[in-house]
Amino acid sequence: MPADPVRQELETRAQRAMFSYAIFRWESAVIIGVTILLAFLYPEPFPWWRWYYWLILGAVSEALIVFTSITDAQTSERVVAGMFREAHNPREIRSDTYRKLVERAFDYQSRIDKAVDEVESGSLRDRLERADRGVADWVSQIFLLAKRLDKYVQNDVIAEDMKAVPLAIKNLDARYKLEDSASVQAELLRALRQKRAQWDNLKQLKDTMEGAETRLETTLTALGTIYSQVLLARAKSSEGATAEGLAEDIREQVASLQDVIATMDEVLNY
């Protein structure tokens, strides 16, 4: 399975961040400072020593620091996780309900990562890791869905229109039935059609958002189910087929959420 785009992008950014971290970490500063001091204060501590040997030794030491920093798996995972959380900050969501759902998704993700890390090396571990790579993209889609729902519920104009438009339709219809002037009736009828079209759009938007909210809740439940299945596969220690099924379930969840978000974007005119 190809790496999911979210994690792949974050890992690329993390590599650059880790390289910068390796260059500017305090150990690097110490090595550079000591190298310069030794080259100037003790250029030839031994008859066979040359001052530029200090520079070579310092360069080798610095290269080792950079190499070990970049290739350290735990550091890489920690940096990727931190960058992912920064790019999907639940605090950006004003609604308590949606923010808590996103935070729960992050909790499931961290628990799944931890459960996979605790599996002994082998074919099962490899399969579970491949499945786990899709979880980041899944949580990313949950965050994007929650953001759109949050934007909808925070939209005061839509909230006001949901209350005002039905009343306006009722008033226009009453005026139309009582009006004697044909020209005024024509204007009222035109206004009625526009308001009814607006109301139809508002109802479609409301139905879409309610469906998306239900989808957010069900996909979070599915994520919790995946966590339980990972624990079960870990306990049995030989469920390779189960691990492959998890990967397929995750891909389907991500694709489904992408479709929901695309529909929401069309309705919201994003």
Task: Give the topology, please.
Elements lengths: L4 H20 L1 H16 L9 H21 L1 H15 L8 H22 L5 H31 L2 H23 L3 H55 L3 H29 L2
How much β-strand is present in the residues? under 5%
Question: Helix- and strand-based class?
Answer: mainly alpha
Instruction: Please report the total strand number as a whole number.
Output: 0
Secondary structure tally, helices: 9
Gyration radius (Cα, Å) is: 30 Å
Could you spell the SSE succession in H and E letters? Answer: HHHHHHHHH
How many structural domains are formed by the residues? 2
Shape: elongated
Overview of the structural elements:
The chain has about 270 residues and is mainly alpha-helical. It has two domains: about 1-85, no CATH class; about 90-270, no CATH class. Helix content is about 85%, strand content about 0%. The protein contains nine helices and no strands. Helix 1 crosses helix 4, helix 6 runs parallel beside helix 9 and helix 7 (about 155-180) runs antiparallel to helix 8. The model has no long low-confidence stretch (mean pLDDT about 85).
Key attributes of the depicted protein:
270 residues; mainly alpha; 2 domains; 9 helices; 86% helix; elongated
